[in-house]
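[step 3/7] inverse_fold.run input=structure_tokens len=197
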């Protein structure tokens, strides 16, 4: 009986950690590695870089491997820059994020309104949660979140094709001060621009 109570407390801690992060972590930065696996578990793609977040709505995925790529938002529009193609795609935030479960990272939202939450195992000090979206048109069928020390340690997202995206955060910081223009993308001179005003 004691073991069951202890496990339940550990699992509930994961939920509390996530909600604490959602409500209190206004700024966040971390290194990340990202892998895409097919439905058989074979790795299809690997990338890595830096992630920065300023709530509500401002973020930047700065990919450094295997080549330079940026996905950035100032809360109003999203810039997607591909250095190999020398191309920038600009989209309004609402249209670009409305169908993705990743939106939970970018706002101070009440996740209970958008997701059903199930507590999973605690593995190596990481408390795992499974979030199933209540939106029928979501890009991902479900998302697994690993919480540690009140920070998001890992994400696992499964799409409708059975492919899994795994993101691991390291060197995470919440007491971050960003420059005023940190989330304003400067379009390279030779880049082709698609979308925007």
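[step 3/7] decode complete -> sequence:
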């Amino acid at each position: 009986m004691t073991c069951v109570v202890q496990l339940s407390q550990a699992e509930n801690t994961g939920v509390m950690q996530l909600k604490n992060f959602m409500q209190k972590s206004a700024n966040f930065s971390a290194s990340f590695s990202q892998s895409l696996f097919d439905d058989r578990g074979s790795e299809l793609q690997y990338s890595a870089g830096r992630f920065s977040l300023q709530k509500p709505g401002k973020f930047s995925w700065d990919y450094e491997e295997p080549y330079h790529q940026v996905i950035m938002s100032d809360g109003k529009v999203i810039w997607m820059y591909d250095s190999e193609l020398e191309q920038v795609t600009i989209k309004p935030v609402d249209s670009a994020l409305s169908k993705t479960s990743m939106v939970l990272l970018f706002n101070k939202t009440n996740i209970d309104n958008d997701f059903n939450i199930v507590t999973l195992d605690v593995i190596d000090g990481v408390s795992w949660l499974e979030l199933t979206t209540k939106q029928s048109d979501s890009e991902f069928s479900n998302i697994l979140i690993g919480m540690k020390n009140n920070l998001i340690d890992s994400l696992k997202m499964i799409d409708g094709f059975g492919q899994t995206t795994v993101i691991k955060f390291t060197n995470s910081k919440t007491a971050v001060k960003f420059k005023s223009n940190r989330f304003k993308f400067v379009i390279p001179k030779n880049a082709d621009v698609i979308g925007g005003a």
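[step 4/7] annotate
The chain has one domain: 2-195.
The longest strand covers residues 43-54.
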